[in-house]
Amino acid sequence: MSLRVRLRDRHGLGLVNALTAMKSGVRHFDTTLGGIDGVLACEDVQFLADRLGVACDSPRAALVAAAAELERHLGGALPGRTYRVPIS
């Protein structure tokens, strides 16, 4: 059975909950670009996966570029935490 979670980032604990979910076998996360609706940002989950050596289908560079464009379009910082972190 494939598990899927949708995590909120209340009190800054979204990535902690994502890590716990990953360790529990979850491989599918419902996220939003930039975390604009209070749900964990897709680029934040991608950042966590990259740091843990977990392969992902989408390139982080594309997510970061899209989040930066969304930020410009909306005219303010997004709730996501890692889209401004340089890609290494």
Protein model, in words:
The chain is globular, with a radius of gyration of 12 Å. The protein is mainly α. The model has no long low-confidence stretch (mean pLDDT 92). The termini are far apart. Helix 2 runs antiparallel to helix 3 (60-74). The protein is built from three helices and two strands, in the order βαβαα. It is 41% helix and 7% strand. It has a two-stranded parallel sheet with strand order 1-2.
Trace the largest sheet across and list its strands: 1-2
Shape: globular
Q: Span from first to last CA?
A: 34 Å
Rg is 12 Å
Number of strands: 2
Q: Tell me the β content.
A: 5-15%
Oligomer: single chain
- The succession of helices and strands, N to C, reads EHEHH
Q: Which segments are poorly predicted (pLDDT under 50) over 5 or more consecutive residues?
A: none
* Helix/sheet category: mainly alpha
Main beta sheet, described?
A: 2 strands, parallel
Quote the average pLDDT. Answer: 92
Number of helices: 3
Relative helix content: 40-55%
What structural keywords apply?
mainly alpha, two-stranded parallel ribbon
Task: Please specify the SSE layout and strand pairing.
Layout: E1 4-6, H1 14-23, E2 28-30, H2 42-52, H3 60-74
Parallel strand pairs: 1-2
Briefly characterize the structure:
The chain is mainly alpha-helical and 88 residues long.
